[in-house]
Amino acid sequence: MLNFRLxxxxxxxxxxxxxFALEEVLPVAWYYDEQDEIPMAVxxxxxxxxxxxxxxxxEFGGRGLGLLESALITEEIAAACPGLATSIFDSSLGMEPIxxxxxxxxKKNYLPKIAKDFKLAAFATSEPTMGSDVAGIRCLAEAxxxxxxxxxxxxxxxxxxxxxxxxxxxxxxxxxxxxxxCAFLVETSWDGVSIGRPIPKLGQRCSNTVGIHxxxxxxPKKNILALPGEGFVLAMKTFARTRPIIGSFGVGAxxxxxxxxxxxxxxxxxxxxxxxxxxxxxxxxxxxFQKVETSRLLTWKAAxxxxxxxxxxxxxxxxxxxxxxTALEVVNEALQxxxxxxxxxxxxxxxxxxxxxxxxxxxxxxxVQRIIxxxxxxxxxxPLLPPLEDLPLHRGLDPMDTGPDRAAAKVWRCRICxxxxxxxxxxxxxxxxxxxxxxxxxxx
Length: 444
Ligand SMILES: Cc1cc2nc3c(=O)[nH]c(=O)nc-3n(C[C@H](O)[C@H](O)[C@H](O)COP(=O)(O)OP(=O)(O)OC[C@H]3O[C@@H](n4cnc5c(N)ncnc54)[C@H](O)[C@@H]3O)c2cc1C
What we know:
The chain has helices spanning 8-35, 40-49, 67-80, 82-100, 104-116, 231-267, 279-307, 313-338, 349-357, 366-379; strands at residues 121-124, 140-144, 147-158, 165-171, 181-187, 193-195, 209-219, 224-226, 269-270, 273-274, 411-414, 420-422, 440-443. With 444 residues, the chain is α+β, with helices and mostly antiparallel strands.
């Protein structure tokens, strides 16, 4: 049965996250954005409040909540600051390869620490020369006894400068592409791990983004998350579970922009009346609102799919693609409603615009989501309607059909232009497109 009503517990969690967002995140977001600094004290409070890593299973000391709960929390935090939402959610991204791995030792060793000790995990597939093409990883993993030695540089690592653990994806041989990709749990305190300077960014400046250099970093067997050949699938499975939440970043940011624009439109006057009286402004607000609502439905659906244990790859891509593309459109329209003030740092729209711009890039760009969806359509999707050339006919209703014995006649359809011919044999040539009789297929 379909049901969009949140449970009492879910509503309570949503309310808790909303209060946290309004009291702890919103008041400091602008300051830390200006400082270009990750507010660790806010992350700590988020942890103490119980809104970080809510999806860690109970058996490992976590709360065992679902992805839908993560979506509820994330929308609230992102409405106050998408950058801080990234910082807060990133530990779930970093932890997901451990959760999905078959390595029980790593789960027992690390998940309880993430759940109880405020240890943060970060996720590292990207490199200075590679992002979308995950099979093109160059960071080298060489067998060393029963463990591995890692050498290479990972780049764009969110929370990399503050995380305790890294899920590192590497390769035993770059030429092997997908078959060489493997994954490891690396502690940032280990010998050979160097953290780069925070990368200066357009937006999401409340999140920390760094390069991480690995030089002869020895990973013991117990920290292997995926053997060579299994790492690519592990990365893709991770994205299928984390992309819905990137959608929630978009929902939160777009909702905030809509609410701010609504407020502004009701108060700002032009031509003797409030902006909200102009239908052009009303229509903008209506469009923005429908995009927020649609995006939320898609992200909840994708999160729900993941919570059912189903392969949510397609719904996650749709949610990520739609919610992040429309978030940028919504925030951009909000800025238009604010006029010149929208372009200033005195109102929150300028920061939101910079922050949401990232959503179309990380965890698979919009182009990558389209590639995934196109591949699904072309190789896996099973149409429910018959192929065009087999479409059934309403013989008595076909205005093109003038033959007296049409009910009895065989029916032939031209595969090129669609013309339908009635008769015992196909015509020598199609009267419309002139293709020969071989272009005709008999419709049963
Ligand atoms: C602030 C920030 C935080 C990040 N955090 C993390 C993190 O924590 N961990 C991590 O591993 N990575 C992280 N990333 C990296 C992010 O995932 C990549 O930037 C992203 O996947 C795109 O890779 P790229 O930048 O190398 O672009 P490229 O892959 O070089 O692509 C450049 C452009 O070409 C397009 N393109 C590429 N291939 C195709 C194709 N086949 N068809 C059509 N278009 C194509 C892309 O869509 C893009 O528009 C982060 C990035 C940023 C900016």
